[in-house]
Amino acid sequence: MEQVGRRKFLMTSLGGVLAVAAGAVLYPLYRYLAPRRNIDSLGKVSFPETEVPAGGAKFFDIGGATGVVVRKANGDLVALSAVCTHLGCIVQWQKERQDFLCPCHAGRYTADGAVVSGPPPKPLGKLPFSVANGTITVG
Amino acid sequence: MLRATRATVILFLILMVPALAPAQEEIVCISCHGTLPGKLGEPVKLWKGSIHAENGIACPSCHGGDPRDMANAMKPERGFLGAPKETDIPAFCGRCHIGVEKDYLQSAHGKALGMGGPTCVTCHGNHLVVRASLDIINEKTCSQCHGFERARIIREAMAQTESHIVAIDAGINRYKGMGIDTEKLEKGLFAVRNRFHTLFHNVNVEMVKNEAVGINADLGKLDSTLAKIAEDLDRRKIIGAGAVGLALLAALILYLLKRSYDREE
Amino acid sequence: MVLFKKIADWLEVRLGLRDLVDRELTGYLLPRNINAWYSLGSILLFIFALQVVTGILLLIYYVPDADRAFRSVTTIMNEVPFGWLIRMCHAVGSNMMVLILLFHMLSVLFMGSYKSPREMNWLSGFILLNLVMAVSLTGYLLPWSQLSFWATTVATNSVGTIPVVGGRLVEFLRGGTLVGPATLGRFFALHVAVIPLTIAALVGLHLFLLERIGVSTPPFGMDDTRNAWRGERFEYEGHPGGIPFFPNYLLQDLTSIAIYLAFFFLVVFFDPYLFFPKDAFLPANPFQTPAHIKPEWYFLANYQTLKIFPSEFVGLAVQGMAMTFLALLPFVDRGKEKHPLKRPLFLACSVGGILLWLGLTIWGHYS
What we know:
Chain A is an alpha+beta fold and 139 residues long. Chain A has one helix at 2-33; strands at 45-48, 57-62, 65-71, 77-81, 92-94, 99-101, 108-109, 115-117, 129-132, 135-138. Chain A is elongated, with a radius of gyration of 27 Å. With 367 residues, chain C is mostly helical.
C-alpha cells in the first residue's frame, strides 16, 4: 500500500501547486479587470496669477514634461502642454504675434494651441487648471 | 487546399508589394527630374536617401512650385523659388529650421556669410541631408577654411553628451520594439538632442560647455525613466521564472501520479 | 466525504451519474500501447480555450476603430495592469497553436491514424487547420500597425489573381477598394465571432467522430500493425483490457499540458518578441510601405515557393496540388499497413515533404 501513501502525497502536492497557480492567475486577472482611477499622475503645479501678465506666458515643469499658461489679450487664461506635437521640441511664446512658434521646424500654434502652419499634426494638448484666491493650479 | 491556395496567394503578393503599394501619386518634380541625366537628375537620387525624404519633405517644401502640374511646376506665380544664391541659403533653410538659423547668424560662421564663410550646405549638403551627428564635424569639412584644431575642441566638448544621447536613443528603440510606449521618451530626447545640436551653430566652445550642464541634467531624467522601465522588465522575468518553475513542478507531480496508476494496470 | 457521496447520490437518481462516469471516464478504455503523442489534441484544446479567454479580456480594452485601435493596444500594453501579459499570451498563443497543430498532424500521419474508417476525422482536422490560419490572419490586422496594414493589403490582394471574380472578391474582403476602416470592421467580426465559433463547432465534430469511431491503435509494440477495419459495417473500435481514460490518460493529458505551459511561459516571459518585427509597433501609415514585409513563419515556405517559380500561377498551382493531395490523403493511401517503418513509400514522401517544407521555410527567412 506504499502506492496509496505515495499517491496521497502527490495529490496533496498537486493541490498545493494548483492553489498557488490559482492565486497566480486570479491576482493579475483581478488587477486587469479592476476599474482604474483616472490618471492623476500629472501632479499639480501652482503659482500666483501675477506671474502671468497680459499677453504673456509662463512655462513650468509638469508630469515630466513642460506646460505653459498664457494670458490672452482679452484676459482669458489658457493652460497647454508646451510639447510640440510634431517631434517634441518645446514651443516658444511669441509676444509680438501672440502665438506659439516651435524653433525646430517652425510649427506655429494660436494662443489656444490650434495649429496654424507647419508640420504639427495635432493641436497642443490642453491641461486642466483652476484659479482660486489669485493662484493658478494646473493639473 | 484552402490553406495552400490562400496562404500561397497571400505570400505571392508580398513579392508584388512595391508595385501594389497605394502610395500617393509621384509628384511631377520627381517624375521628370528622376529621369534626367547628370546634374539635373542627381538631386533626386541624393534626396531619396535623405532624412527629408524619410519624413515626407519633398521638392516643393523647400523650392516651392506646383507638384501636380507638370507644365507650370516651375513658374514663379506658383511659388517656385528655384535654387537659392549662396547668401540666401541660411534664410532658405531657415524657413523651417528657425532656431538653427538664429544661432548661425549670431555666430562667427554666420558673420562670414558671403565672405568665404560656410553655409548650411557646406556641412549638411543640400539634397542628401541626413540626421545630424558629430560626424559632420570632421577634418575634411572643417579644414576647408581653417585648421581642424578649433573644430576638434568643440567636437570633443560635445562628444560625451553625444554618446549619452546615442545610448539613450538605442535604449528607447529597444523598448519600442517590445511594445513599451516610448512616445514621451522619444519626444523628450528629440527636444534635448535638438537643443544640443543647435548649440553647435554658435561655434562657441564656452557656450557649449555651459549649456551642456542643463542638457546633461535632462538626459539624466530620461535615464531614470529608462532605468525604471528596465526594473519593471526585470521583475517580469522573475515572475516568468516562477511561472515556468511552477508549470514544470506540476508536470512532474502529474507524471508521477500517472505512473503510480499505470503500475496498477 | 459524506457530503460528496450525498451529492453523488442526488445526481445518480436524476442523471444516472455512475453509469455516465463508467462509460465516459473510468470505463472508457484506450489501447495499452497508447503514447504521449495522443495528448497533443488536448493541448490544442487547452490553447484554444486560453486564446478565447485572453481574447475576451482584450476585448474589454481594445477599440475596433481605425483611428483608435493602435492607441488602445498601446494602452493595454502600457497602462492596463498586466495588459502586457494578456496581450503577449494571446499573440504567442496563436503561434503556438499553429506549431502544436503541425505536430498533431505529423503524429497522425506517421501513426496512420487517418486511414479508414477515420477519413472524416482527417478532413475535419484539415479544415480546422485552414480555420486556424484564417483566425490568425484576421487577428493580425486588429492592432492596426504598419505590419498589420501591409500584411493584410498583400494577403487580400492575392485573392485578386483568381480569374473572373478576383477583383470583386478582393473588394468584398476589404469592404472597399483599399484596406481601410471597413476592412477592420469585417475582420474584427470574423476574428472575434465567426471563425472561433466555427472552430468550436468543428472541434465538436472532430471529438464526436473520435468518440463514435473509437481511438485508433498505435502501430507500435505489436507484431501485426495492419489496419484491422474491414468496412462491411459500422464497428466501434474498442480496446478491451485497455487503459482507462480516467485517471490514467487524463493524467497524461494534464502532464502534457503542464509541459506545454512551461514552454509557453518561457517564450511569453523571456522572448515574446520573436514574433514581433519593429513594424508591429508603428501605427499604420497607408502612404508608406515598409521595406521588408515577411509573412509569419508558418507561411514562409509558401512565400519562398512563389519566389522560386517565375510564373505566379504555376507557383500557386503547385502548392494547390500539394495541399489537395494532403487533404485527400486517406483516399489516396488505402494501404492497410500503419507502422511508418513498414511503409517505405509513405516514409520517403513524408520525410521528403517535411525536409522540403523546412528547407523552404529557412530559405524564406533568409531570402
